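for ur thesis appendix - DNA-binding LytR/AlgR family response regulator. copy paste whatever u need, i formatted it the way the template wanted (i think)
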Amino acid sequence: MEYTYIIIDSDATSSLQFQHYLEDYGDFVFYGLAKDSDQGLNIILKHLPDVVFINLDKNATECFELVNELYKYVTAMPMIIGMSKSKDYAYEALKNNFFDYWLLPYNELDILKTLMYLKKQVPKEKTVPTICIKSYSDFQYLNTDEILYLKADNNATDFIMKDGRVVSAFKTLKTFEDNLPKNFIRVHQSYILNMDYVSRINYGKSICALKVGQEQLPFSKSYKKNIDSLKKVLAKSTFSTLN
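the 3d part is after this line
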């Protein structure tokens, strides 16, 4: 459910600031920065981003020409959001079917409203990655969102599923570590867990509790950085009651 975006802005400091804003919204993935319209056209045609943010304060004419030129080459136009310190280009942006127009400096509320409206108007279909477990001529396909965790078993790996099934693969845990979606993290020499099912992190006892099955998995000091990252991810969607 991610939206890819690029920025066209000759001001590197301004574009970096904006990237930091969008880091708080995990649905948006940065694909590149262009300093002018020529670079912008190249990056757009190469990556076909969902959204293009354009600073119109320099070379506005060339930027509007870029938008018109895109119609020649792409089937689905990206959503264009213009930015400027004044309202001087607002009418031209409207004529060119810009999705929105922001006044600089950035206003966090304006950004939030635009991004929420964008996601409402152009919803992304969620695709669930699958993983194939092969054993000789037997192929099993597992939806990754149904996997609670992976457990090492000598030179094999057990997939513990949400419905209670255990599916075994005759490969090491390391084999799967780099090929799983980003919501899977290594927490122990013997465990990789799906962070979507974590209900509790207990640093004192070095355990992670799961929402399903009331299981508790240990984590080791060598993977504490991963646990800290997990804690930050979970905190973004949590109301804290800590004093």
